[in-house]
Amino acid sequence: MKTIILEINPQKIDLAKIKIAAEEIKKSNLVAFPTETVYGLGADALNDKAVAKIFQAKGRPFNDPLIAHIADIKELYRLSRKVPSVALKLAKAFWPGPLTLVLKKSELVSGIVTAGLDTIAVRMPADDIALSLIREAKTPIAAPSANLFGRTSPTTAQHVADDLGGKIKMIIDGGKTKVGVESTVLDVTVEPVQVLRAGGISVEKLKEVVGQVKISKELEEGFRSPGMLNSHYSPRAKLILVEKKGDAQVEEVRRLASKYIAQELKVGIMAKEENQNKYNGFEFKVIGKGSELDVCATNLFSTLRSFDKEGFEIIIAEGLEEHDLGLAIMERLRKAAAPK
Ligand code: TXA
Ligand code: MG
Known about the structure:
Blueprint: E1 4-7, H1 15-26, E2 31-33, E3 40-44, H2 48-58, E4 67-69, H3 74-79, E5 80-82, H4 85-94, E6 99-105, H5 111-114, E7 119-123, H6 128-137, E8 141-142, H7 157-164, E9 170-173, E10 184-187, E11 193-197, H8 203-210, E12 213-215, H9 217-220, E13 238-242, H10 246-262, E14 267-272, E15 283-288, H11 293-309, E16 314-318, H12 325-337
Parallel strand pairs: 1-9, 2-9, 4-7, 6-10, 11-12, 13-16, 14-15, 14-16
Antiparallel strand pairs: 2-3, 3-8, 4-8, 5-6, 6-7, 10-11
Helix pairs in contact: 1-6, 11-12
The chain binds threonylcarbamoyladenylate and magnesium ion (MG).
């Protein structure tokens, strides 16, 4: 299959182009599109044949449910049979934006989208290309991140083409995504609401709106219990995460880098800006200032992918602080460092 790349300027959206992409969605085809978090691999969420193609193209197991993307809050009531007041409150506070709500599903939603669960994940993305596409397609769009299963999520159209070129009908190129990590997944069927995946809306921000927020056990334990650690978000290179702090962290990064270099492996360090001068003589890339976690989030996946592009075999990553977007970053780095 030849993959069509459709360039759309996010500052000046060409509706004629959006209509071309929406036609493909209506014809049960896959269209990758930008959102504010990462690129999504979209299909008509109410069409089983189309949704099945998502799993096929990504190599994703059918037991991993998808997020339905909507452009109008009314759609939430079509997709869910029970919208608790807390869900509406959260939607009003954070939509459009990087928050996914897990609710009881309606009859309209088929089991292929939800992986047989009785719940459906829904979000309204804060991206005008994504919103226009959903409106023109006149259907909710099911979309996982547009990467091969288990791999680093895409933050540019080129990343999508690298993974899925030749396997999908179309990629809308709307430039680099802003947030850089996926949406926060929040279960609102339980009380208090529970974070299942850290993401673009921080736990701190959620608490400002709903007060009590529970963190899934997996997240709270930092994925330290081995059974819960499924490799995900992985670059091709082996990733080693160094969670120590301060000077001890730099020392450990240098020690590990030297060890693998001695084994004649191509080693790269992913460093905070303030530490870069401590890695003279090593190859390194800067993710951002440790104090600017939102910038680090934006750069995370593209930095990991650039190590791969340049043929690095080992990536040694400095851990970041675990508040605000740092929680989402660390969740991803720990999973990326898990044994494959
Ligand atoms: O930012 C994002 O969320 C991006 C963009 C494209 O919107 N999408 C994304 O989708 O990251 P995906 O499929 O890569 O991740 C969705 C996550 C998975 O961890 C999945 O298990 C979880 O959401 N999820 C989906 N439906 C669920 C449900 N009914 N209950 C619990 N978790 C669910
Ligand atoms: Mg994903």
